[in-house]
Recover the amino acids of this structure.
């Protein structure tokens, strides 16, 4: 994950324009998708609001990818192809940033180096063997799980869950591993109460989504919780090893949470 294309984040506390909810949503869109939303204000307060609204952007991305999946099926294609195209659409819509973060985190943690050395590995533009293997297996699992789940609703839920993992990774008390970069801007910006509130909304939305397919009424909320649990475990390990979160850690948490949610939908079929 990288800052918006409009440039670097200002120093904490800097004000570009009076903050509004639209600035938080625009920043979330700019950070999490290819859409150039151009927020008027970019600072830690706006970043916190963006991380709270991240699941909304995730649901939108999931709907777009689900439309690709449904459209491919409507054209008569069966098997894994609809899932492959849906996962590919997600990669395009996010510029592959989350996958890149996952690969970088795998290389950093897999290097076995202390925090400073692991962070330096993560800064490099190349991808090492740990990153390649992690990427390959993650994408394969996502495609296989989505194919087995057999419903676009699983993808929408998983995408919202992946961005909800960001909300929790940026809550108060979670430090940044570096004094600069995206991690330093968003770390610790979300209050616990706000994280709990948005989690409740996502769970309710998942349960309501399951009304379209009764068999998913309990599965989708369970997928949300499983995705959050997987992201919590990886985030805790990353903070212990690296000293905090970075943009790469946050990107990795998105993909890990999405994968875990899809697995629950597939296994509960």
């Amino acid at each position: 994950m990288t800052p918006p294309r409009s440039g670097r984040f200002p120093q904490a506390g800097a004000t570009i324009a009076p903050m509004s909810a639209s600035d938080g949503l625009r920043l979330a869109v700019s950070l999490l998708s290819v859409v150039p939303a151009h927020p008027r204000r970019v600072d830690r307060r706006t970043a916190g609001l963006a991380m709270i609204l991240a699941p909304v952007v995730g649901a939108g991305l999931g709907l777009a990818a689900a439309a690709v999946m449904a459209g491919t099926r409507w054209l008569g294609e069966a098997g894994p192809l609809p899932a492959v195209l849906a996962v590919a659409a997600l990669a395009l819509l996010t510029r592959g940033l989350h996958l890149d973060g996952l690969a970088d985190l795998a290389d950093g943690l897999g290097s076995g180096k202390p925090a400073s050395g692991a962070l330096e590995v993560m800064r490099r533009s190349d991808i090492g063997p740990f990153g390649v293997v992690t990427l390959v297996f993650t994408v394969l699992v996502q495609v296989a799980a989505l194919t087995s789940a057999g419903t676009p609703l699983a993808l929408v839920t998983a995408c919202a869950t992946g961005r909800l993992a960001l909300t929790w990774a940026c809550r108060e008390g979670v430090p940044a591993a570096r004094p600069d970069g995206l991690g330093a801007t968003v770390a610790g910006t979300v209050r616990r109460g706000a994280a709990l509130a948005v989690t409740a909304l996502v769970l309710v939305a998942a349960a309501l989504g399951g009304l379209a397919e009764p068999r998913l009424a309990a599965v989708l909320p369970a997928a949300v919780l499983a995705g959050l649990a997987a992201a919590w475990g990886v985030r805790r390990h990353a903070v212990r090893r690296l000293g905090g979160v970075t943009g790469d850690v946050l990107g990795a948490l998105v993909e890990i949470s999405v994968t875990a949610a899809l697995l629950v939908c597939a296994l509960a079929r």
